[in-house]
Each structure stands twice: as structure tokens, then as C-alpha cells.
Write a structure and sequence with these properties.
Helix content: 40-55%
CATH superfamily of the largest domain: HUPs
CATH class of the largest domain: Alpha Beta
Structural class: alpha/beta
Distance between the termini: 38 Å
Low-confidence stretches: 166-177
Largest sheet: 4 strands, parallel
Number of domains: 3
Shape: elongated
Number of strands: 15
Bound molecules: zinc ion
Length: about 475
């Protein structure tokens, strides 16, 4: 039985699927006006872990992650780049999907684009309008009338915050809107992309798209709705208001939110300009290092992006790959193994990944200690380490590749190393132990460490400073 912290009730609750062994999961995706950054990566990677894990424990997971491909920011950026909005959004979707692939994310079952859901969006606004929850303002925009929904603010538990005039004054949302009513349908200005609607040509507001797409795909059967914690207000608060008013009653069972990635005491975000793109991080770090950095803290906690924390992540992942070095997977039964069971129980407790990683490091230590005396046992444990790490989306690489990454060694140097290793192999074959040791020392003086395994000798750089 898996327990998940439900933002709605602020407590851990048992995951009870609406339909038997099926989980419908909707996660708010990217607004594609620029490249994705590490803040986005945290949400993308965490829900990838949720997706992998729920499937592994036997659920059929319908994972939907939307793409916001029309938005004010997209229009503005496309205009600046002298492109159409869809040229920009298509280019950014392409880059986003490349990033996701590099980070070893399993694609969601469905990635709906807002522009493909205009009918659903317009239908939902129409229902809200007919029920008296929406009105047209002087700018010909359609707005949600919050005075018609008495529970506004209950979801984000910020109702007291709204009512404090001090906070209202400083809250950008209020500064912009003067009242809390938010846009459902934005009337198009000239030269803006637009879609026909009963209220004239325009485009949807940001919040209505997720309510309408989610309802269009899952109806009222959404088990999990996820996103970053910065979406709790106003995005998810507004989603709840729209969905409850349009279709009466809750549409989502559980809400899950990932904590923010901080950089120099501020939330990493494009609007603040303090961000690192996924691409720039991938140039420097192996995808597993990024995944580890973003999942080794509990998903609800805040994390700080620093060079030191990324380096620590590198050394942590290196320990795991080092344990796998020279081992091979065996066709064994492991589902009663105590490490395996402990790992599952950590994950079943609201995806406690820090605890899950601690189990992987214990396994790694055991494997290293068995390598000298009992290779069969080392191989058995390495099989379990691989299976469990793969659930977190890491350790798919060949250990040699990881450990020798970014060597920047010339082909001549690599050839020299391989030749010495081959000569040493011959020495060993003919029991010339002294000559073999000399070659090992020679390689050591070059900073190369050897590991002899059943499958041959492997080498890696001792203090590989480059990550
Ligand atoms: Zn959303």
C-alpha cells in the first residue's frame, strides 16, 4: 500500500485508485517559450520516478503532461524573434523533448497541446458562463466571477493571506487584477493568434486549459494531479474553482507538489533570470548526476542549486557505478531480499527517495566487500542494485562509460593505456607477476586505476576531477 502526501488535505493518504489497478495522473507541463531549466527538470524527473514506480508495483498508469503552446509569453517572444507563435512553440517542444530524452525520462502516455483542445476549453467556459460563474468585461475578455465560488482560497489555504490588506497590496496578482477575478478567455488584439469562440476571437487563459484538458481526458476520474509547488496558487486554486463550478464536485483525488529549486536564495525561474538550462547542465554533468541531485532530497523539500551540491551528487553516483564495475546481472529471484523490501517500503512512504538512496549505498558497500571473496554474491546484489536504481531512472549506463566520462584523453593516450593493460594481461597469463605489477604501477603513476574482473581488466581515472 502506497501513501502519498495530498496537498488538498495536508496529510499522507493511502492511494486508492478510482478504477481498480488504473491510475490517471495529470501533471502541469511546460509553457514552451524558452529552453527548460533545472527547476522544470525537478518536476519532470520526480513525476517520471512516480510513473516508473507506480507501473513497477503493478498499476496501469495513464500519465498525461500537457504542453502550453499558446500564451502571452510565447506571443511576446515569437514577436521578438520575428517568428509565428507556432514556429517558436514547435522549436521549443522539440528542444524540451530532446532534454527529456537526455535525462532518461519515459515519455508520458499523452502530451496534449492546448491548441488541440480549444473545443473542450470553449465548452467549459460556456458551461461556467451559462451557470453564472463567468462574465464579459469592458475589454471583451471572459472572466471567472470569484464571488460565485465561496470556497476560493480553501485549496491553497491562503484565504487569510488574501484578506490581509498588507499582503494584498504586495501581491502582484492583486496589483494586476485589482480584484481576484481571473481570465478564462482573452479577447484577441489585432495581429495576435486567435481562435473563434461565442465571445469573439481570442485565446484561453492559462488556468482553464488544465481544467478543460484534464476533464476532457479523465472526466472526474483523475487520481493524481501534480506540478511544482509554485502552481498551488493561483494556478491550481483557480483550476479547482473552475472545475468544481463547471462540473459540480471534485475532479481530482490527490494533489502532489514538488518543492522549488533555489539558486542564491531565490526560486530558480526564467522571470528572475537566475536559472541554469537543462542543456547547460548536461554539458557538464552526466544525466544520472542531475537526476540524483534532483531526487536525493525529498520531493516536497526545497533544494539549493550549488556547484558543491552537484559535485556531491557526482561522487554519490560514482560510488554506485563503482560498485557495479566488473559485476554482471544474474537471473535471480530477489523479491524477498531485505534490501529490495526496504527500498519498496521507503518508496511506498510518500516516495521517500533519500531513504531509498541510503539503501542503495548500503547495497553498494556490500557489493564492494563481496567482490574480493564471493563474486557470485556480489553479482546477486549488483542485480538488485541495478533493478532498484533503474526505478529511479539511473544506473542504465555502462560503469566504464560513467567512470571515464569527460576524460579528454587523446587517442594516443588511450591506446597507450590499452596496450599496457594488454601486455599486463599476457604477463599474468604466464604468471609473470612482477612484470604485471610493474605495469600496474606504471599505469597508476599515470593516474589510471585497474580493476580485474572475471570479464577482463577495467580501468578508470583515479581522481577524475571533471564530472
Ligand atoms: Zn496546469
Amino acid at each position: 500500500m502506497i501513501k502519498i502526501f495530498n496537498t488538498l488535505n495536508k496529510k499522507k493518504e493511502k492511494l486508492v485508485p478510482i478504477c481498480s489497478k488504473m491510475i490517471n495522473m495529470y501533471v502541469c507541463g511546460i509553457t514552451v517559450y524558452d529552453l527548460c531549466h533545472i527547476g522544470h527538470a525537478r518536476t519532470l524527473i520526480f513525476f517520471d520516478v512516480v510513473f516508473r514506480y507506480l507501473q513497477y508495483i503493478g498499476y496501469n498508469v495513464n500519465y498525461v503532461r500537457n504542453i502550453t503552446d499558446i500564451d502571452d509569453k510565447i506571443i511576446k517572444r515569437a514577436h521578438k524573434r520575428k517568428e509565428t507563435y507556432d514556429q517558436l512553440s514547435n522549436a521549443m517542444i522539440y528542444e524540451m523533448q530532446k532534454d527529456c530524452k537526455m535525462l532518461n525520462l519515459i515519455p508520458p502516455k499523452y502530451e496534449p497541446r492546448v491548441t488541440n483542445y480549444m473545443n473542450e476549453i470553449i465548452n467549459m467556459i460556456q458551461i461556467l458562463y451559462e451557470k453564472g460563474h463567468a462574465y464579459i468585461n469592458y475589454d471583451n475578455d471572459v472572466l471567472f466571477n470569484l464571488s460565485t465560488y465561496k470556497n476560493y482560497g480553501v485549496f491553497s489555504k491562503k484565504i487569510k493571506f488574501f484578506l490581509s490588506t498588507k499582503n494584498i497590496k504586495h501581491h502582484t496578482f492583486f496589483q494586476k487584477e485589482k480584484n481576484c477575478d481571473f481570465v478564462l478567455w482573452k479577447h484577441a488584439k489585432s495581429n495576435e493568434p486567435s481562435w473563434p469562440s461565442p465571445w469573439g476571437k481570442g485565446r484561453p487563459g492559462w488556468h482553464i486549459e488544465c481544467s478543460a484538458i484534464n476533464y476532457g481526458i479523465f472526466g472526474k476520474n483523475c487520481d493524481i494531479h501534480g506540478g511544482g509547488a509554485d502552481l498551488i496558487f493561483p494556478h491550481h486554486e483557480n483550476e479547482v474553482a473552475q472545475s468544481v463550478c463547471a462540473h459540480t464536485g471534485a475532479q481530482v483525488n490527490m494533489w502532489m507538489h514538488t518543492g522549488m529549486v533555489m539558486y542564491k536564495n531565490n526560486k530558480m525561474s526564467k522571470s528572475l533570470g537566475n536559472y541554469y538550462t537543462i542543456k547547460s547542465c548536461l554539458k557538464k554533468y552526466h544525466p544520472d548526476v542531475i537526476r540524483y541531485f534532483l531526487t536525493s532530497s525529498h520531493y516536497r523539500s526545497q533544494i539549493n542549486y550549488t556547484n558543491t551540491s552537484l559535485k556531491q551528487a557526482y561522487y554519490a553516483v560514482k560510488r554506485l557505478y563503482f560498485a557495479l564495475l566488473g559485476t554482471m546481472s544474474l537471473p535471480i529471484q530477489y523479491k524477498k531480499n531485505k534490501f529490495y523490501l526496504k527500498f519498496l517500503s521507503a518508496m511506498n512512504d510518500d516516495f521517500n527517495t533519500p531513504k531509498a538512496y541510503a539503501i542503495l549505498f548500503t547495497l553498494a558497500r556490500k557489493i564492494n566487500s563481496y567482490k574480493e571473496k564471493n563474486m557470485h554474491q556480489a553479482n546477486k546484489l549488483s542485480t538488485i542494485l541495478r533493478v532498484l536504481s533503474n526505478l529511479l531512472g539511473i544506473l542504465y549506463d555502462n560503469p566504464d562509460n560513467f567512470l571515464n566520462r569527460h576524460l579528454n584523453l587523446s587517442q594516443n593516450k588511450i591506446q597507450q593505456i590499452n596496450t599496457l593493460i594488454q601486455e599486463r594481461e599476457i604477463d599474468r597469463k604466464f604468471h609473470k607477476w612482477k612484470a604485471a605489477d610493474i605495469k600496474r604501477e606504471q599505469l597508476k603513476s599515470m593516474g589510471i586505476i585497474l580493476t580485474d574482473t572475471k570479464n577482463g581488466t577495467r580501468w578508470f581515472i583515479k581522481n577524475n576531477k571533471k564530472l
